[in-house]
């Protein structure tokens, strides 16, 4: 079996069997990370470029590490040091990268739908590394790998996603993907940051964080995205922490061994206090490692599809 599309644009575009394929390959490729020799030939002779119009530590670095571990020629270009600063359009920028014999372009852009508009116009395979408030598919895939490592399945899991849902592409990718995999999603956050139309996805919109966490298998905090926020959506950061923060008392409402997740970067003391971030149930560090494994799998499978 192979991925069906040239590009990986979102969880909306992936079928459940493709999600399983990526997770199975990620679990296998993860063994390379634990081995003494992290150099493989999976991407030998291939080229990967990362193009980021927004800041990133985890996503950009993990794609770059994944490319290097698997033997690809890799390069990165940030909008700040490129001809974007001279006014070059996104399409012309991507066409230029395409014409340099690039096989895979990993891009992050502040505009929702930006990679979807570009992908049909170029030969290079586009991987969406986050588009505005829309999707961040490889984050959801690494979250799924982390859940599967603990539970062996996604089907039937009760997943509580808490915080700034409105601005969160991580939440949207998780919501779309978890529904396809048979998990149940509960959402909680400030009413101004909790779009009710997400109920159409099958997710349960809860009135309080306590209600969302009660009996959950997975508790996922989200970063409060002050950079995307119009004024007045939250009264103050202190009040946000008080009413919507994942405190030790609230975490105890979930199942006793529930996973505590966060995509990072975390605002300590706002989304959760440091003692929750570092508690035994926290798998936030594992999420980071799984990010490399999932991105190895995505690069490998997209390359295999191009070769077919
Ligand atoms: N989770 C995530 O996308 O982190 P970065 O912004 O550091 O890539």
Question: Helices and strands in order, then pairings?
Answer:
Layout: H1 16-34, E1 47-52, H2 58-69, E2 73-78, H3 90-98, E3 104-109, H4 114-118, E4 125-131, H5 137-151, E5 158-162, H6 169-180, E6 184-188, E7 204-205, H7 209-213, E8 218-221, H8 237-244, H9 248-251, E9 259-261, H10 274-277, H11 284-307
Parallel strand pairs: 1-2, 1-3, 3-4, 5-6, 5-8, 6-7, 8-9
Helix pairs in contact: 1-5, 1-11, 2-11, 5-6, 5-11
The structure holds phosphoric acid mono(formamide)ester.
Quickly give the CATH architecture of the largest domain: 3-Layer(aba) Sandwich
Give the CA-based shape: globular
Order of helices and strands: HEHEHEHEHEHEEHEHHEHH
Name the CATH homologous superfamily of the largest domain. Aspartate/ornithine carbamoyltransferase
What order do the strands of the largest sheet run in, or round the barrel if closed?
7-6-5-8-9
Instruction: Give the bound compounds.
Output: phosphoric acid mono(formamide)ester
Overall pLDDT: 95
Unreliable parts: none
Counting structural domains, the number is: 2
How many separate helices? 11
Strand content: 5-15%
- Report the count of strand segments: 9
Overall radius of gyration: 19 Å
Structural class: alpha/beta
Sheet with most strands: 5 strands, parallel
What's the CATH topology label of the largest domain?
A: Rossmann fold
Overview of this structure, please?
This protein has eleven helices and nine strands. It has helices spanning 16-34, 58-69, 90-98, 114-118, 137-151, 169-180, 209-213, 237-244, 248-251, 274-277, 284-307; strands spanning 47-52, 73-78, 104-109, 125-131, 158-162, 184-188, 204-205, 218-221, 259-261. The chain is of the alpha/beta class and 308 residues long. The strands form two sheets. Strands 7-6-5-8-9 form a five-stranded parallel sheet. A four-stranded parallel sheet has the order 2-1-3-4, sandwiched between helices. It folds into two domains: 16-134 and 288-307, Aspartate/ornithine carbamoyltransferase (Rossmann fold), CATH 3.40.50.1370; 137-284, Rossmann fold (3-Layer(aba) Sandwich). Helix 1 crosses helix 11. 38% of the residues lie in helices and 14% in strands. The chain is globular, with a radius of gyration of 19 Å. It binds phosphoric acid mono(formamide)ester.
């Amino acid at each position: 079996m192979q991925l069906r599309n040239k590009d990986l644009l979102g969880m909306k575009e992936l079928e459940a069997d493709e999600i399983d394929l990526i997770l199975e390959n990620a679990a296998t490729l993860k063994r390379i990370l634990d081995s003494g020799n992290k150099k493989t030939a999976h991407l030998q002779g291939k080229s990967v470029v990362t193009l980021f119009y927004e800041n990133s530590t985890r996503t950009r670095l993990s794609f770059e590490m994944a490319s290097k571990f698997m033997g690809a020629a890799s390069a990165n270009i940030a909008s700040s040091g490129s001809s974007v600063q001279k006014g070059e359009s996104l399409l012309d920028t991507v066409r230029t990268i395409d014409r340099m014999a690039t096989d895979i372009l990993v891009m992050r852009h502040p505009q929702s739908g930006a990679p979807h508009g570009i992908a049909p116009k170029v030969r290079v395979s586009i991987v969406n590394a986050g588009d505005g408030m829309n999707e961040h598919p490889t984050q959801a895939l690494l979250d799924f790998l982390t859940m599967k490592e603990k539970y062996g399945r996604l089907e039937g899991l009760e997943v509580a996603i808490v915080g700034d849902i409105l601005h969160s592409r991580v939440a949207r990718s998780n919501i779309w993907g978890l529904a396809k995999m048979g998990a149940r999603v509960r959402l909680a956050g400030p009413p101004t940051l909790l779009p009710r139309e997400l109920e159409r996805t099958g997710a349960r919109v809860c009135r309080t964080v306590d209600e969302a966490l009660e009996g959950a298998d997975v508790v996922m905090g989200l970063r409060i995205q002050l950079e995307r926020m119009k004024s007045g959506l939250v009264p103050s950061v202190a009040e946000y922490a008080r009413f919507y923060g994942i405190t030790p008392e609230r975490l105890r409402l979930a199942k006793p061994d529930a996973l505590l997740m966060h995509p990072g970067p975390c605002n300590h003391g706002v989304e959760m206090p440091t003692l929750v971030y570092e508690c035994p149930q926290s798998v936030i560090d594992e999420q980071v490692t799984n990010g490399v494994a999932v991105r190895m799998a995505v690069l490998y499978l997209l390359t295999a599809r191009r070769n077919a």
